[in-house]
Amino acid sequence: MGSKVKLFFPFSLVMLIGLILPVIVMVIAGFQGMDGGFTLSNYTTIFTQNYYRMAIFNSLWISLIAGIIGLVISILGAWAITRLAERTQNILIILFNLAASFAGIPLAFSLIIVFGNAGIAKALAHALHIGFLGNFSIYSLQGLILAYTFFEVPLGILFLYAPMKEIKKEWFEAAVVLGANRSFFIKTIILPILLPNIIETFIILFANAMGTYETMYALTGNNFISIPIVIGSLIDGSLNANVPLACALATIFAAVMAILVLVGNRIINRKRK
User: Long-range contacts for 167-176 (Cβ within 8 Å, ≥24 apart)?
Assistant: First the structure.
């Protein structure tokens, strides 16, 4: 008993100081005005002014699109990796571990070098007369989705690789012997096994995209508003800073993620039963 207390006490202390207390302070501050008094004006402002509603919509929309695209590519990528030699798989997993951490300013700078107005892709497009490539802008919504995909896909592959590797070729051979075709095998055997992992991976990708700040800010500045961008502008220390309003937005962000996790867990538990 004593050893368990010694083991979990430091972890509980870190959770309390690093997560629980900040969340409590954030929620309380969201109901305070600039003078420190209780008010609902922060939430009234968020849900009545188009600027803040657009920030919420943009965050949800780009996270949904980037999450779906990243999930689809991750499923195909993880499946393809499991078909390679063991040594090649290990090398690729190491590379994907590195790529999953390659986000923020470094990723944005790399994409600007390739797809920026004076980037490599633009030069090739003009030289080879490739219209769609020349018209593509990394500073647009499509560019943001491309940027998000760059760090969503490696992360998704890392989460899906392990469960996909557990699928044995012998399962399909046995199904064929029993008269099943490939589509029936995928629908009745593979999908039920992988669906909980797919849902969990999508939730992680969605949350990862929702919380992205540096990449979006480096590519678009304040031209494309989202919840992280607005929160950043509200706590930048300028004369227009409004920390209680930023806390209210952050609370809404946390509530969206909590609802998504609860719904996802409910679906997963049903499927596993």
Answer: 167/82, 167/193, 167/194
Nearest to 145 by CA among 81, 65, 223: 65
The interaxial angle of helices 243-272 and 227-234, nearest 10 deg, is 150
**What would the two tokens of residue 217 be?**
């800010």
List own/partner pairs for 195-198 with CB under 8 A and 24 or more apart: 195/268, 195/271, 196/268, 196/271, 196/272, 197/159, 197/160, 197/163, 198/71, 198/75, 198/160
Which tens digits make up the pLDDT trace of 112-163? 888 887 778 878 877 777 766 767 788 888 888 888 888 899 999 999 999 9
Residue 103 contacts residue 215 (beta carbons within 8 Å) = yes
Domain assignments of the chain as residue spans, ordered by start: 56-272
Kindly list the distances between the CA atom of residue 10 and the CA atoms of 3, 20, 25, in Å, as whole numbers in the listed order.
12, 14, 21
Q: Tally the C-alpha atoms within 13 A of residue 72's C-alpha that lie toward its C-beta.
A: 5
| pTM for this model (two decimals) | 0.87
Residue whose C-alpha is closest to residue 194's, from 125, 80, 272: 272
**Cβ(197)–Cβ(203) under 8 Å?**
no
- For 86-98, how does the pLDDT look when each residue is reduced to its tens digit (9 = 90+)? 899 999 999 988 8
Among candidate residues 138, 185, 193, the one with its CA nearest the CA of residue 162: 193
Among residues 149, 63, 61, 66, which one has the least CA distance to residue 100? 149
Q: What is the pLDDT of residues 200-253, one digit of tens each?
A: 899 999 998 998 888 888 888 778 889 999 998 888 766 678 889 999 999 999
Q: Which CATH number fits domain 56-272: 3.60.70.12, 2.60.40.1930, 1.10.3720.10, 1.10.10.10?
A: 1.10.3720.10
Reduce the DSSP state of residue 82 to 3 states and report it.
Answer: helix
